[in-house]
Amino acid sequence: MIEERGQAGNPSSEIPPDQWKRINEIIEKYKHKAGTLIPVLKETQEVTGYLPLEVQQRIAAGLNLHPSQVYGVVTFYSLFTMTPRGRHTVRVCLGTACYVRGGQAILDRLRREFNVDVNETTPDRRFTLEVINCPGTCGLAPVMCVDEDVHGIPEPEKAVEILKEYP
Fold first, then answer.
1. What residues form DSSP beta bridges with 14?
2. Omega before 142 cis (within 30°)?
3. Cβ–Cβ under 8 Å, residues 151 and 145
4. Comparing C-alpha atoms, which of 32, 25, 74, 77 is closest to residue 54?
5. Bridge partner list, 121
6. Which of 20, 21, 28, 114, CA to CA, is 20 to 30 A from 96?
7. Using CB atoms within 10 A of its CB, is residue 32 exposed (0-12), middle (13-18) or buried (19+)?
8. First and final CA of the chain: distance in angstroms?
């Protein structure tokens, strides 16, 4: 079984023991199959929410790869992230139709409400705030997407109300 400790020999403060256990199970499932790095990274990110260096090093050791190979894949594909993400991704559209109908005001309201900037995650890891340019729903403009849900937002305060529905 793979070592249960972080880089410096101390238990990881970011990744709880139950997640380390699940990561080890994922590695064990794939370690004897060639070309499985991306599925391992994907499944691991589903468990942890992100891929910090200590997790990448564990994967590299478990798959008998050099850590730079794992890091190279993580940093190449936009699917992967090395920073903690929220349970919900909130995307505010700033495409032309949304912008002229108040998209920036919605973004500003959410930044104030959650005290985060674009591409940041709330301290409780509930939300990650992002900007998008046109999800193709201009008739609802301005819009905010929460995970896979699209919401037409008539006023900035409505965005805060909608987010209360997401635990």
1. none
2. yes
3. yes
4. 74
5. 128
6. 114
7. exposed
8. 35
Return all residues near 136 (Cβ < 8 A) that are at least 6 apart. Answer: none
Range 123-145 average pLDDT: 94
Q: Tokens 């997790």 correspond to what residue?
A: 55
Angstrom distances, CA of residue 90 to CA of 9, 31, 32, 127, 146: 36, 35, 38, 7, 5
Q: How many CB atoms are located within 10 Å of the residue 98 CB?
A: 27
Q: Measured between alpha carbons, how far is 92 from 107 in angstroms, rounded to an integer?
A: 6
Q: In this structure, what token pair is assigned to residue 79?
A: 């699917």
Q: What are phi and psi of 90, to 5 degrees?
A: -105, 120
CATH classification of 88-163, choosing from 3.10.20.90, 3.90.180.10, 3.30.70.890, 3.40.30.10? Answer: 3.40.30.10
User: What ranges do the domains of the chain cover?
Assistant: 17-76, 88-163
C-alpha to C-alpha distance for 137 and 144, rounded to whole angstroms? 10
Q: What is the pLDDT of residues 72-110, one digit of tens each?
A: 999 999 889 998 889 999 999 999 999 999 999 999 999
The residue-averaged pLDDT of 38-55 equals 95
Q: Partners of 120 in the beta sheet?
A: 129
